[in-house]
Amino acid sequence: MTNKGQCMGNIVKIENLQTPELDIYARLSEGQLLHYYEPDTGIFICESPKVIKLALDAGYEPLSILMEEKDITGQAEEIIEQCGDIPVYTGEFELLKNLTGFPLTRGMLCAMRRKELPAAEEVCRNARRIAVLENVMNPTNVGAIFRSAAALNIDAVLLTSGCSNPLYRRAARVSMGTVFQIPWTFFDKKQSWPDQGMEILKKEGFKTAAMALSDHSIRIDDPELAAEEKLALILGTEGDGLAAGTIAECDYTVKIPMAHGVDSLNVAAASAVAFWELGKNKIL
Q1: Are residues 98 and 145 in the same domain?
Q2: For residue 282, what pLDDT is reported?
Q3: In a shared domain, residues 249 and 167
Q4: Which of 8, 85, 126, 129 has the greatest number of CB atoms lying within 10 Å of its CB?
Q5: Nearest-5° angle of CA 59, CA 138, CA 99?
Q6: Helix (DSSP H) and strand (DSSP E) numbers for the chain
Q7: Distance CA 143, CA 272 (A)
Q8: 88, 113, 138 - which closes a domain
């Protein structure tokens, strides 16, 4: 049954969990959503009112909303108004939990169209401090890195093809919506990493710093790093870290000094420490 809600949107009370319109929330994987309109841009699912609001403010197009019925005139009312007349599928908490397989964070999901990604050169052009993620596969880590990057004055993020997508539901939620605030893109499939990717960074005037332990590593607080006009900090995959070929092509190899015999941090934690050190002059 469909009727016009008092806060705009077409309010649709869920009566059948097998309704095809709900597939994007319940039965399609992140990868399937990514390629939903192929060769055009795909879909992503945004979770929680705060994150959805940031995505809307960044110009992402909403397609439909899934939410608890009790919240229609509550905290989500402004978001529904901002979305216009898209379908707003509603149900009770347990029904929606059975549909999605997880409790809705603050009771709201929104399906949105992806945008065309900018070229790596465009993302680099007006930046001074950027992060490059090499095959960081855990969406929680990707989201945490974006949150730290936005908070600690990193201007942009570039990702290699092996990274988890920043718009995957968990990554966007963990980032607290900062994936919609900081410029980012993937290296184009035709731009091999590290060879052509490094060439792009060099053409855009960046020195490169690999986060890795080696006999040649310098401290993250080395004044030489701070003095670089444009610097790209490169962070590697969980566990194995950066590839040897990537480290070899970088201008610097950088480490975070540690105590008690600890040799490394989780990539998200390491990124926060490094971003603070490299961006603090813009904060202080």
Answers
A1: no
A2: 62
A3: yes
A4: 129
A5: 65
A6: 12, 13
A7: 12
A8: 113
Nearest to residue 109, comparing CAs of 172, 197, 161?
Answer: 172
Measured over the CA atoms of residue 95, residue 96, residue 100 and residue 102, the dihedral's sign is: negative
Which of 256, 257, 210, 213 is CA-nearest to residue 231? 210
Whether residue 151 is found in the same domain as residue 273: yes
Question: Which residues of 93-238 form beta strands (DSSP E)?
Answer: 108-113, 129-133, 156-159, 184-186, 207-211, 218-219, 231-235
Q: Which of 113, 145, 173 lies at the terminal end of a domain, its last residue?
A: 113
Domain hosting residue 97, numbered range = 2-113
Distance, CA of 68 to CA of 146 (rounded, Å): 29
Task: Give pLDDT < 50 ranges for the chain.
Answer: 1-6, 284
What's the pLDDT tens digit per position in 114-147? 999 999 999 999 999 999 999 999 999 999 999 9
Assess whether the previous peptide bond of 194 is cis (omega < 30° from 0): yes
Instruction: Give the total number of structural domains in the chain.
Output: 2
Radius of gyration of the chain (CA): 21
Tell me, yes or no, whether 167 and 96 share the same domain: no
- 151 with 172, same domain? yes
